[in-house]
What we know:
The chain is α/β, with parallel strands linked by helices and 495 residues long. The protein is globular and about 80 Å long. Helices cover 38% and strands 21% of the residues. Strands 14-17-18-13-12-19-20 form a seven-stranded mixed beta sheet, sandwiched between helices. A five-stranded parallel beta sheet has the order 9-8-7-10-11, sandwiched between helices.
Amino acid sequence: MTTPVFQNYIDGTWQxxxxxxxxxxxxxxxxxxxGHFPLSAASDVTAAVSAARAAFETWxxxxxxxxxxxxxxVGELMTRHKEELARSMTREMGKVLQEARGDVQxxxxxxxxxxxxxxxxxxxxxxxxxxxxTGIALRDPVGVVACITPWNxxxxxxxxxxxxxxxxxxxxxxxxxxxxxxxALCLVELLYEAGLPRGVVNLVFGPGKPTGxxxxxxxxxxxxxxxxxxxxxxxxxxxxARMLKRVSLELGGKNAVIVMDDxxxxxxxxxxxxxxxxxxxxxxxxxxxxxxHRAVQEKLLAKLVPRMQSxxxxxxxxxxxxxxxxxxxxxxxKVHNYTALGQAEGATLVTGGAVAHLAGELAGGNFYxxxxxxxxQPEMRIAQEEIFGPTLSVLTIDSLAEAIQVNNxxxxxxxxxxxxxxxxxxxxxxxDITTGILYINAGTTGAEIxxxxxxxRGTGNGxxxxxxxxxxxxxxxxxxxxxxxxxLQKAQIEE
Length: 495
Ligand code: UN1
């Protein structure tokens, strides 16, 4: 079978990169070559941005309920194609099928939610201080949005950015991660099948350099919405600042599950397994620190470790598999380096810590054993840095105050969890934990799209995605005063 060659989608037409270059897309479980995609350079990106700029002038005038209706249809199409979207996602990035279905479902949820915003998109009005005068605050679209999206949620995250942007009347250039171009392509196909006018969403493929970099340098891009590593996010922010662009960043996490001495340990074990090893630890909300009360640590680990060791690694397409591959060889090497680092720092490797060599068609895959360290001190690098793999560091504490202090003491602040039966402890944690998301008696993953998603400190730059808050990035407040008194009235001036 010949390998398919895919194209960019610019101004309603499929086209190769102007220079004809391509890059390959591989299955991380098997190494299978799935297709070739355009390696876009500056001229391709410029064409995409020009198309989005031109389309903005008509798209912004389409009534928001009509824009929302297109998103409803997208939701319907995604529902109809859920299984094939999920399967192709698993093939290109490895997460197990059940989770790939969840990823698509998150996109469907966002389609319906933002579709509904077509008939809300609420501004507000409040009383004005002068007679015969009104004031209203409206949400205007901003313009062209560059969406730069990661490989770990290859459908969901593009929808988090594109759907609120679109319903608000903006147009889009999407550059998906080079590890997951196919999922983005399938999503964009459905947007057009649902009736999106040409040029409203444009799709360019390619790596950070040169493609993402070219997108950062476009003067006609008004907003950059980026999800990815902290290192790249900082670069995006610096470049955006130079051109005074609006920028929304969703970056790393070093999320912790706290287990107190009164916790339901069986429940905690389920939450830890799901949060730490689900998606092979490759979520920004993944749990990579277990902050456990000394009194229950031994008992908890006695339950957790055998469960970890029985997790089945393999091809995510196989319904019996619990943990899929790491996205690529570079990331696998990074994860393994952190194991060496943890040992060098003096932590105790309890289980895992090795590249897993599977047989048959999986021999070429990037698999890593679920890994657990104990004796981790809060200042160690394995307790501070985002690993983005199946590695969990156990930190021992003696009190709630210490647990909260350890939890808060990282440069990230996305998601935290606390297992306790004590309502006072849960309330104190709610008050004092400084992450954007807190779970009480559940793991660190599983955020729902109708709530704001994002974190404090180095996890981002203060913005939130999803929920009503997600609209703020993609809208400009416009206030309109109408004075029907027929005379000059002066606000704030005493007569
Ligand atoms: C991400 O890891 O980038 O809360 C997103 C969760 C998911 C989304 C994670 N709903 O884990």
